[in-house]
Design brief:
The complex is a heterodimer of chains A (about 350) and B (about 475). Chain A contains 15 helices and eleven strands. With about 350 residues, chain A is an alpha/beta fold. In chain A, the strands form two sheets. In chain A, strands 7-8-9-3-10-11 form a six-stranded mixed β-sheet, with helices on both faces. In chain A, a hairpin with a 2-residue loop joins strand 5 and strand 6. In chain A, helix 6 runs parallel beside helix 10 and helix 11 runs parallel beside helix 12. Helix content of chain B is about 65%, strand content about 5%. In chain B, the strands form two sheets. Chain B has a two-stranded antiparallel ribbon. Chain B has a two-stranded antiparallel sheet with strand order 3-4. In chain B, strand 1 and strand 2 form a beta hairpin. In chain B, helix 8 packs across helix 16 and helix 9 runs antiparallel to helix 16. Chain B is globular, with a radius of gyration of 27 Å. In chain B, about 35% of the residues are buried. Classes of the chains: A alpha/beta (about 350), B mainly alpha (about 475).
Chain lengths: ~350, ~475
């Protein structure tokens, strides 16, 4: 494993960028194999502190697999996933934890977590990475308020004296629950669900369920929020509201990593975009860089019908990309079918 | 932020046309036939059913063979056969006319009246609960004054029902709240019973009140022991393994002769005492101490109050737990386990606590069972017991406390009351024994409930916390958890 990820993450962008200097999450040489299929091959990237980072790519590119590795739902075959609290790369701490075999190391000015060593619930509980799901997973039979209280399980559990104090009715628990309700109300206000607080989550319309899932993830007080296609199935007005909500979440000090197909959302709010195709990174940079990257255009628009591309420079670039991607794919593992896609 | 996002509000909930549409989709299929056609079609359908009954019943009802000297003797019972055909014809015709082939089915009328009841009268559930609680509190004295001749029998029955209420409430934690289908709950009942029996027969100093917490702790310990390997399994597999665990405990109790006495069981289990006073006739008995006349019924009344208090404690703790983070995590686990993990909830620990606490109450009930009987053997802890307790929970409505009470009264009390139905033998002749048919009647009642109330008697869920108004949540939204 390469211990200096600065060179591994983002070689295209040239000089070190903000997200390389101050990353909250670093994925290094992540490989995920399912039997013979390589879903993600040797992927490295950084998620900047306080950024909205988008992970995009065509269907089946391995975006959700990356998410599942980061949030502990899959154990990666290879690679290191580092989550940091506090500023800077904290390289010494990262190296120390990696060598020690421990899961994390906390100091006064920050903490370092190796997510690939932690079980899924621990990642949310200690490393403060929260996530939402592509297909909404709410507690449909519980009210909106209850959903948001379940998200605050761990602090409430401590306040209830691991249930024993709560059974005999300690006032500390009542106080903690009051605070938890206040926090829930705060987020219900921000996703406009306050007047539906006592309705079952399953009764909400689709867009409201998406917002509730984000609010529920935020109630775990995450440092990094991972959103799996938050704009899927939303109408344009709801997408615009989602943009505002995500910007608000960023202003609250939470970094955001999102998978998204809606380019309107991605290009408008992202500070940093990573493009995946067939499990490998094909582009990494700010929105304007990615938008004009020929590899991205090739991946999204397809390249087999070369007659349609009548600008000679673009055609030459595309040919170079195909050559590079072909040889890169052979080296990294993912097999690329013949020809491109339209 | 809140002002800019003018997202869907109360207007967006399905109301008016949308709600009607949804209800229509759920409503039974109605045929738009006019009344005359309805009658003709009903008669035709009833005739077909009668014909079918005649064909099927011919060999079973009409002909009867008996062993006679020199071979078989065939006798005909035409009266019975014709009567059964007539009953089927009339029954089917009535069903057709009033339910199947009418614009306004009678059942819908009932359903319509019953459905909105909970919503219209939100205090009803609480009122019924309070009334039942008060009635349960005075029940022994009610029985001794109203039925003095049968007081022993009725108080015994009340104790039995209350035991099942407690077991149902205990299992409700595992099945109703955490959504883990446990078919071997009786194992913890057995652990509690044997723990008390063995402790009290081996150690003189241990009486009922000292053994009770020990038995509960042992049962909880066994719940954890079972839980560790089993809780990785899901759904049907979990149910099968818990079923196997229940049987394993019983078979170990049956075969470990040196320790448990095997099929002979354990006898001479001490009776519970009231602050060290025994319920005996002598000088140091409770009756002498209180200065009242001795009667054997005192001990039964005392037993009733023990199980009553144990059950109330179970209920109180369960209601408290539901409002604590661990209880909410149980219900969240029933709704969606993956989402729970994404919120930082350790699902293994959460499941284990559900198993352990459910098992603990099973253990308490078990030690009560041992002290009430004075004798236990593995025969009392068969799979049928697990099935009955599970049936009580499911019939009452998963997660509903009052539903468990109603279901236990109906199931346990109902079965026992069927033993005492005398008037039926006046109709069907002196040979008719209703006890033989009680399981049949019971089965029919279960099928009926599953048709009309598929999610149990009380299927709605009460939220554990409310911001403004506590609204009951319909069964459609509530998940049933693993293995349902």
């Amino acid at each position: 494993m390469n211990p200096s990820p600065a060179t591994a993450a983002g070689p295209q962008t040239g000089p070190a960028t903000r997200w390389d200097d101050d990353p909250v999450l670093t994925v290094e040489h992540l490989t995920m194999r399912f039997g013979g299929l390589v879903a993600v091959g040797d992927l490295s990237f950084n998620v900047g502190h306080g950024d909205i980072t988008a992970l995009i790519g065509p269907n089946g590119a391995g975006k959700t697999t990356v998410f599942n590795c980061v949030t502990g739902f899959y154990k990666p075959t290879e690679g290191r996933i580092v989550m940091r609290h506090g500023p800077g790369r904290q390289q010494q701490a990262v190296d120390a934890v990696t060598a020690s075999g421990l899961r994390y190391k906390a100091a006064n000015d920050g903490a370092v977590f190796l997510l690939e060593r932690m079980p899924d619930y621990e990642i949310t509980k200690s490393a403060k990475v929260a996530r939402t799901f592509q297909n909404i997973r709410l507690f449909g039979g519980m009210t909106v308020l209850e959903n948001l209280l379940v998200a605050q399980h761990n602090p409430l559990m401590i306040a209830s004296g691991f249930t024993f104090g709560g059974i005999i009715g300690l006032p500390a628990y009542a106080r903690a629950q009051g605070e938890a309700v206040d926090r829930a109300v705060y987020w219900m206000e921000h996703v406009n669900l306050l007047d539906r607080a006592d309705d079952p989550a399953g009764d909400l319309p689709y867009g409201a369920q998406r917002r509730l899932e984000i609010a529920r993830a935020m109630c775990t007080r995450p440092e990094l929020l991972c959103l799996d296609e938050p704009a899927a199935g939303l109408n344009p007005r709801e997408s615009a509201e989602l943009n505002q909500l995500l910007q608000f979440i960023r202003s609250e000090g939470t970094s955001v990593l999102l998978i998204e197909h809606d380019m309107g959302v991605v290009m408008e709010i992202s500070d940093h975009i990573i493009v995946l195709d067939y499990g490998i990174k094909i582009s990494d940079g700010d929105p304007s860089f990615v938008k004009s990257d020929p590899k991205v255009i090739a991946a999204y628009l397809g390249v087999d019908d070369e007659a349609e591309i009548d600008v000679p420079e673009v055609r030459a670039e595309v040919a170079a990309v195909i050559h590079e991607a072909g040889s890169g794919a052979q080296a990294a593992g993912p097999t690329r079918p013949e020809g491109g896609r339209t | 932020m809140a002002t800019t996002v003018d997202a869907p509000t109360a207007e967006n909930r399905p109301a008016g046309a949308q709600r009607d549409l949804e209800e229509q989709r759920r409503a039974p299929l109605k045929t738009g036939e006019d009344p005359q056609n309805t009658l003709a079609a009903s008669l035709k359908d009833a005739a077909a059913a009668a014909l079918l009954a005649g064909v099927l019943g011919f060999f079973f009802l009409a002909l009867r063979t008996e062993i006679a000297p020199g071979g078989l003797d065939v006798s005909a019972r035409w009266g019975l056969w014709l009567a059964s055909i007539a009953v089927v014809f009339a029954g089917r015709l009535l069903l057709n006319l009033f339910v199947f082939k009418t614009r306004r089915p009678v059942t819908q009328l009932f359903a319509g009246r019953g459905a909105g009841l909970g919503a219209r009268l939100p205090w009803l559930g609480k009122a019924v609960g309070a009334a039942l609680f008060l009635f349960a509190m005075i029940l022994p004295f009610f029985i001794t004054t109203v039925f003095p001749a049968q007081q022993r029998q009725y108080i015994d029955l009340a104790i039995l029902i209350m035991t099942y209420v407690m077991l149902g409430w205990g299992l409700n934690i595992v099945v109703g709240l955490a959504g883990l289908l446990d078919l071997g709950y009786v194992a913890f009942y057995a652990v509690g019973a044997y723990a008390f029996a063995l402790l009290s027969t081996h150690f003189e100093v241990i009486g009922f009140w000292t053994a009770l917490p020990l038995a509960g702790m042992l049962a909880a310990f066994w719940g954890v022991i079972l839980g560790f390997p089993v809780l990785r399994l899901r759904g049907d597999y979990l149910a099968i393994v818990t079923l196997a665990f229940g049987e394993m405990i019983r078979i170990v109790l049956l075969n470990w002769y040196d320790f448990t006495g095997g099929p002979n069981g354990i006898s001479g289990i001490p009776k519970p005492t009231l602050f060290g006073l025994e319920f005996t006739r002598g000088e140091d008995g409770v009756a002498a101490f209180l200065g009242i006349e001795y009667s054997t019924i005192h001990r039964f009344i005392y037993l009733y109050y023990i199980i009553f208090i144990l059950a109330i404690v179970t209920n109180f703790v369960t209601m408290r737990l539901r409002r604590l983070p661990v209880g909410r995590a149980w219900e969240a686990l029933r709704e969606d386990e993956i989402a729970c993990r994404s919120l930082g909830i350790n699902t293994t620990n959460t499941k284990l606590t559900a198993f352990a606490i459910g098992a603990m109450f099973g253990g308490f009930a078990g030690s009560f069972f041992a002290t009430r009987q004075g004798f236990i053997s593995p025969e009392s802890f068969t799979f049928l017991e697990s099935a009955i307790i599970l049936a009580i929970v499911v019939l009452g409505g998963l997660g509903s406390q009052i539903g468990v009470v109603i279901a236990s009264v109906v199931m346990i009390g109902g079965i026992e009351m069927l033993r005492n139905i005398g008037f039926l033998s006046d109709i069907f002749g002196p040979d008719f024994d209703p006890v033989k048919y009680r399981m049949l009647i019971f089965g029919l009642a279960m099928v009926g409930i599953m048709i009309w109330k598929p999610r149990g008697l009380i299927s709605t869920r009460e939220p554990t916390i409310a911001l403004k108004e506590r609204k009951r949540i319909g069964a459609d939204y509530v998940a049933q958890g693993e293995g349902h």
